[in-house]
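chain below, 116 aa
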Amino acid sequence: MKKLFLCAVCAIFLFACSNGFGGQPKIDASSIESITTSLNAIRASLPEEKKEAFEGALIATIFYAVMTDLGNSTAGQKEKTEEEVLQIYKKYLNGKTADQIIVQAEELQEKPGLNK
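prediction:
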């Protein structure tokens, strides 16, 4: 009986952690396809007034990632592979909600050397 109860508690915990209790959807950056799918799910879950803020924050975050991480390659180096680009996206996007992306973009815009 204790094992059954423990299994039930674990199942509820896992369900809650996977946004089962109304949590915001998160970006899954495990593959390019999963990024696209999770971004579409986030967009669909947002009210209209928040979609614009999210889109702007997403663009600002990706721009920052490109300028810092991807932009570090010089003309003599090979281009980044899809896996290398995916690692950079994971660094900035993976596991984050729309609200977290918006806050992150605001923080990135405050960094020295970035034009506002």
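Helices lie at 2-17, 32-45, 48-68, 82-93, 98-109. The radius of gyration is 18 Å.
thats it, cya
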